[in-house]
Design a protein that fits this description.
Elements lengths: L20 H5 L7 E2 L11 H11 L11 H15 L8 E4 L2 H12 L5 E4 L6 H8 L3 E4 L3 E3 L2 E3 L2 H7 L3 E7 L11 H14 L2 E5 L20 H5 L1 E5 L13 E4 L3 H13 L7 H13 L1 H25 L4 E3 L6 E5 L7 H11 L2 E2 L1 E2 L10 E5 L4 H16 L1
Parallel strand pairs: 1-13, 3-4, 3-7, 7-8, 8-9
Antiparallel strand pairs: 2-10, 5-6, 9-10, 11-12, 12-15, 14-15
Helix pairs in contact: 2-10, 3-10, 4-5, 4-9, 11-13
The structure holds pyridoxal-5'-phosphate.
């Protein structure tokens, strides 16, 4: 491997939410190994850092617009990786995907309107909906044969009357890469009910072979005309601190409304370093990404083997994308509080409790394995001692 993902980097003292935030969120504790927030403990891709340094060497940080390289790199990347053909006018900057989804909620719904989510799911989808006084409609996924699936009968009923459906594509925390057929079904049901699909594709670049990501808007004409896509190089190249996300809207009417909303308040004013970082990631990223994903895949396999051999009461839902692993701990027969206590007080680990993602996450914990193998082994040994000790 050209890149070294085994390197242990001390991230403490950088105001890292994952590392320095443990003391804050776990009330002063400093004995927990953090395996929670979704960023990786690897160095940010080096060509991203080099591009940022090069720009800062200029020493004048004036007002700046999104550079041509940013648009070109996005257009090329989504075309090569996801078969998505777009033009420059279909792209707008978003200062983070959670911000972008919130802007979409504000733009396309009024207080009291219904927004659907499929729990267990990335919590800001429903938190931002609630915080903005819209009604959350819960259409739970079903766990079958070790993977999450959409119950389409239920989905069809639940989505009636919903202005928006927020889709995690691929899914966090379950790690599902939705098939083309599943996405086509979502598109046809949502087109019928007049529901706009907000497709959050932040984990798309982390799709693990042999799975293949489908950008929602590519699966059918209905999908293309009823959706807004959010993407970002932030997860894949480990640069979430740069707020480098963007949205793509292909339908003319939806685009005029959404981009008009963003522009009215300059919510889409790109951060100059974000555009430079994103352009560098997409222009030079293929080899780094392939190697990083191979490393993460090995981590997932290591975790799965370790659990089967040493902690069989905990089962990994094997992710088809990303470095987040939802751990099924239901065989331990503990309440969620007892489960969290086990991970914190006995295993000395900081993970996301499953119920963060909705009550359907009861009995689960989410573990981030985007870290050097040594860190993962340490965490698993601590967990084994806590469960079996
Ligand atoms: C599905 C999903 N969307 C969005 C985000 C966060 O995106 P951003 O940092 O751009 O707001 C995350 C981070 O974990 C995520 O998992």
């Amino acid at each position: 491997m050209k890149y070294n993902f085994d390197e242990i980097i001390d991230r403490r003292g950088t105001s890292s939410v994952k590392w320095d935030g443990v003391q804050k969120y776990w009330k002063g504790r400093n004995d927990l190994l953090p395996m929670w927030v979704a960023d990786m403990d690897f160095k940010t891709a080096p060509f991203v850092v080099e591009a940022l340094k090069k720009r800062l060497n200029h020493e004048v940080i004036g007002y700046t617009f999104a550079c041509d390289e940013w648009y070109d790199a996005i257009i090329n990347w989504v075309n090569v990786r996801f078969d998505l053909t777009i033009t420059r006018d279909m792209i707008d900057y978003s200062p983070g995907i959670v911000h972008g989804i919130t802007f979409a909620i504000l733009c396309f719904t009024d207080p009291g309107d219904k927004v659907m989510v499929t729990p267990p799911v990335y919590h800001p989808f429903f938190l931002m909906t609630e915080h903005n006084n819209r009604e959350v409609v819960w259409s739970p996924l079903v766990l079958e044969d070790g993977q999450y699936h959409i119950d389409f009968d239920r989905f069809r009923q639940d989505v009636q009357g919903c202005k928006l459906f927020i889709l995690s594509n691929p899914h966090n925390p379950g790690g599902r890469v939705w098939t083309k057929e599943e996405l086509q079904t979502i598109a046809s049901i949502c087109a019928e009910s007049g529901t706009i699909v907000i497709s959050d594709e932040i984990h798309a670049d982390l799709t693990l072979p042999p799975y293949r990501h489908h950008t929602f808007s590519t699966v059918s004409e209905e999908a293309k005309h009823h959706s807004i896509t959010f993407m970002s190089p932030s997860k894949a190249f480990n640069m979430p601190g740069l707020s480098s996300s963007y949205c793509i809207v292909e339908d003319d009417k939806l685009r005029a409304k959404f981009f008009g909303f963003l522009q009215a308040s300059e919510l889409d004013e790109g951060h100059f370093l974000a555009c430079i970082g994103a352009a560098a990631a997409y222009s030079h990223g293929t080899e780094w990404l392939d190697q990083m994903l191979a490393y993460v895949k090995d981590n997932i396999e290591y975790l799965d083997r370790y659990l089967k051999e040493h902690i069989p009461a905990i089962k990994a839902i094997i992710p088809q994308a990303s470095y987040l692993v939802f751990l099924d701990c239901r065989d331990l027969k503990l309440s969620q509080k007892q489960l969290c206590d086990l991970f914190e007080d006995r295993a000395h680990l900081a993970l996301n409790s499953g119920t963060t993602f909705g009550k359907q996450g009861e009995g689960f914990m989410r573990m981030n394995v985007g870290c050097p193998r040594e860190t993962l082994i340490k965490a698993l040994q601590q967990l084994e001692k806590a469960v079996n000790g």
